[in-house]
Amino acid sequence: MISVTALGEKMEKQITIDLINNFSNIYNSNSTNRIIENAITENGLEKSCIDRRIIEENQPIFNIELPDGKRYDQKDNYRCWIYCGLNTIQYDMAKNLNIDLKEFALSNNYIAFFDKLEKSNNAYENIINISNVDWEYIDKEDVLQHCVNEGGHWQWFVSIVNKYGLMPYEYMPDVF
After folding, report:
1. Which residues have C-beta within 8 Å of that of residue 68, sequence separation ≥ 6?
2. 3-class secondary structure for the chain?
3. Sorted alphabetically, which Pfam families does this protein's record hold (predicted)?
4. Residue 63 lies in a domain
5. How far apart, in whole angstroms, are the C-alpha atoms of residue 37 and residue 28?
6. Structural domain count, the chain
7. Residue 65: is its pLDDT beyond 80?
8. What's the CA gap between 58 and 79, in Å, rounded?
9. By C-alpha distance, which of 24, 25, 17, 19 is closest to 5?
10. Residue 15 to residue 22: CA distance in whole angstroms
């Protein structure tokens, strides 16, 4: 028979009504439990667990304001990862080159072009390396059409910039 100790009571493998009543009496004998129970019932567990002292001591007040640069509408092209990366770089470049941020922008279209080029190359390399390719299946399932989709990640952005560099927006603007 397995036994453990809970709340100072020796528990056998079997739970008895007496044991449950004992737990209930111990719980109800502590008036703080009723206050906590009411708070959780009324406000939910998450709100009831907030420690106001910690919130008061850690106010999110910032006094650093970055200047606004040009703003571009990415529309529905799923290039948010490119815009985010370029916005991060543009600020530092403009600052280091002493260029007005409102007059300076980098081309997202340039990064998107090389993203598609790299994705296409990767897809064709995978097909070349596969033996016994069922070309009918590839045509039917539009595998080639969907391998060069929009969307990306920070690491892809970094890899493309490291390999191909950057281009000012004025030399390769958006075409949509």
Report:
1. 101, 102
2. CCCEEECCEEECCCCCHHHHHHHHHHHHCCHHHHHHHHHHHHHCHHHHCCCHHHHHHCCCCCCCCCCCCCCCCCCCCCCHHHHHHHHHHHHHHHHHHCCCHHHCCECHHHHHHHHHHHHHHHHHHHHHHCCCCCHHHHHHCCHHHHCCCCCCCHHHHHHHHHHHCCCEHHHCCCCC
3. Peptidase_C1_2
4. no
5. 11
6. 2
7. no
8. 35
9. 19
10. 11
CA distance 78 to 174: 14
Of the pLDDT bands very low, low, confident and very high (cuts 50, 70, 90), residue 1 is: very low
Q: List pLDDT tens digits, range 13-46.
A: 788 899 899 999 999 999 999 999 999 999 999 9
Assigned token pair, 162? 């490291």
Domain match, 96 and 135 both: yes
Residues 27, 90: one domain? no
**136 close to 63: Cβ distance less than 8 angstroms:** no
* Residue 99, in any domain of the structure: yes
AA identity, residue 148:
V
98: number of CA atoms within 13 Å, CB side? 0
